[in-house]
Design a protein that fits this description.
The complex is a heterodimer of chains A (147) and B (155). Chain A has 147 residues and is α+β, with helices and mostly antiparallel strands. Chain A contains one helix and eight strands; from the N terminus they run H-E-E-E-E-E-E-E-E. In chain A, strands 1, 2, 3, 4, 5, 6, 7 and 8 form an eight-stranded antiparallel beta sheet that branches. The longest helix of chain A is centred in the first third of the chain and has 28 residues. Classes of the chains: A alpha+beta (147), B mainly alpha (155). The interface between A and B is large, with 38 and 37 residues. Strand 8 of chain A pairs antiparallel with strand 2 of chain B, so a sheet runs across the interface.
């Protein structure tokens, strides 16, 4: 057997398997479903803040690694709260509740009930950093903060 | 004069393995893509991409259909280990390379190596840059090997 014949076979096989893996990973990223659950809880400071929750569902077949959510609450007057979640892993076909502690952007400001927009950026990766994803969600509603 | 370097049974086996990967694989892609697109379409009412599902599948079928028909034609028409076949196979690898770039480009928006789409109030950006680069390198290696095979093949 010639060297090139053997090499052609090996490279063709690796390429085909790699393309299949690629499709599976892209498909898996498309099946991450973040859902916002408004559940404000007062947390101690300083600075004072509130925690809130996201339900992240992984409907794909590959576990999500290093999933982090950055969220910010704002309205027409300006930014009020922002925070990050701790890195999490979500196994295949499972849902995980991710809690974010959000703190006042300008300490000493007053957070009152009202119409706000919450923008969340969900980032994560599959198989190390072979494929990573960012999901941006906008959620506008009347937020009622606990006293 | 035709030339075969391997035993006829071995040659047939290699040919069959190659054909399985080059025909079953694109069919699997089509089935998988169809499922994803249908799933999104049912969720948001419209396809999440800038082109319609039918357009996408049509373009995909034509591009990959041409690539694999081209390779299959070459395999069938020329003797398996002749120089003509090696040249044909090498050209086929260039088509595969270009086809892959075109397919990824369809989903990439303005940024190559990314795939963008939206579902309801969420926008999704999948960064495939690393896996994309590795795939292109694999295609490049395939081309180099197939190019080298031209010089090893006999008339």
């Amino acid at each position: 057997m010639k060297v090139t014949t053997l090499l052609k076979g090996i490279v063709s096989l690796v390429s085909a398997l790699f393309l299949i893996l690629q499709l599976v990973l892209i498909g898996s990223a498309a099946f991450i479903r973040p859902a916002y659950e408004e559940n404000w809880t007062l947390i101690g400071g300083p600075p004072p803040g509130f925690s809130t929750q996201f339900n992240i569902t992984n409907q794909g077949i590959i576990p999500v690694q290093n999933l982090v959510i950055y969220a910010r609450v704002y309205n027409s007057s300006g930014d009020y709260l922002e925070g990050y979640s701790l890195p999490a892993t979500i196994q295949a076909f499972t849902t995980k509740v991710i809690t974010i502690n959000m703190y006042e952007i300008l300490p000493g400001g007053t957070i009152t009930d009202g119409n706000y927009t919450l923008i969340a950026r969900v980032t994560g990766a599959f198989l190390g950093a072979l494929i990573s994803f960012t999901i941006v969600i906008n959620y506008t509603s009347t937020f009622n903060f606990p006293p | 004069m035709s030339y075969s370097e391997t035993h006829p049974k071995k040659a047939t086996f290699y040919l069959l393995i190659g054909l399985i990967f080059e025909t079953v694989f694109p069919v699997l892609i089509l089935i998988y893509m169809d499922q994803i697109l249908s799933y999104f379409a049912s969720m948001v009412g419209i396809p999440p991409f800038s082109i319609t599902t039918n357009d996408m599948l049509l373009v995909y079928t034509i591009i990959f259909g041409l690539i694999f028909s081209f390779i299959a034609f070459g395999r069938g028409y020329f003797t398996k280990h002749s120089k003509k076949y090696a040249i044909f196979d090498c050209i086929g690898s260039i088509f595969s390379f270009i086809g892959y770039i075109i397919i990824v480009g369809f989903f990439s928006g303005a940024y190559f190596g990314h795939i963008y789409f939206s579902i309801m109030n969420a926008s999704i950006d999948i960064n495939i840059y690393m896996i994309y680069s590795i795939t292109l390198i694999l295609y490049l290696i395939t081309f180099i090997i197939k190019f080298a095979a031209i010089f090893e093949a006999k008339e």
